[in-house]
Amino acid sequence: MTGTLVNVVAVLVGSSVGMAIGKRIPEGLKKGIISGLGLATLLIGIQMALKTGNILIPIASIVLGGLVGELLQIETFLEQLAERLRGYSRSGSSTFVTGFITASLVFCVGSMTIVGSLQEGINGDSTLLITKSLMDGTASIAFASTLGIGVAFSALTVLIVQGSLTLLGQNLAFLLSGSLLNEMTAAGGLMIIGIGFLLLDIKKLKIANFLPALIIAPALAWLFP
To answer: Which segments cross the bilayer (predicted)?
Structure first.
């Protein structure tokens, strides 16, 4: 769990720095930072989506995942959770929910999260997660400077997701298979693109409702190799 704990600390420290800086940043400049983050997020999402070896798999995964997520109301659940966390933090920030959900998805949807957590669980190698920690810590500075304390609470999501993958490492080792991981990454990339749209104020999507796609994608890759 060393890598995950380092990642959690990195997000918390980065968020603290970001919030301290954010108080000194004019609103106009904050909008510029959010636009820059949106463009960067689009680039990351496109890069991830291009990992697919069969474009039909991530497309089908996102469509089916979106249907399942809508039925389960995943986005609504996360919004309610974020509102509760905001109550505990006594924060009046209007961007708390957006910060929490956006940072949680950006920090936990991707091959580095899956591979790094499984590697640590299987052989104790936390190198990849520590590398990811440096990236997440830097990103959390930028996110927290504009979206506030909700970003810091995404450390809880990182702990739960990566910690679970690490503890279940031996049982989930099959996910390290090239095609399964690539299709899961591609589906995650489409979700990250959606976050980019949200940050750029192009289209507000219920991104969390697409989370089942991360399970459907490797399943389809296994069924249709």
So the answer is: 32-50, 55-74, 94-118, 139-160, 180-200, 207-224
The pLDDT of residue 29: 85
Q: What's the pTM value of the predicted model, to 2 decimals?
A: 0.84
What does the block give as tokens for 37?
A: 């983050």
Nearest in space to 156 (alpha carbons), one of 89, 202, 94:
89
At residue 125, does pLDDT exceed 90? Answer: no
Q: What would the pLDDT profile of 66-119 be if each residue is shown by its tens digit? A: 999 999 999 999 999 888 888 777 666 678 989 999 999 999 988 789 888 988
Distance separating alpha carbons of residues 110 and 189, to the nearest angstrom: 7
Backbone angles phi, psi at 140, to 5 degrees: -65, -30
∠ Cα 15 17 19 (to 5°): 65
Q: Which residues contact 32 (CB under 8 A, 6 or more apart)?
A: none
* Backbone φ/ψ region at 148: left (φ over 0), alpha (ψ -120 to 50), beta: left
CA distance 202 to 209: 18
Question: Which domain range does residue 38 map to?
Answer: 2-223
| Number of domains present in the structure of the chain | 1
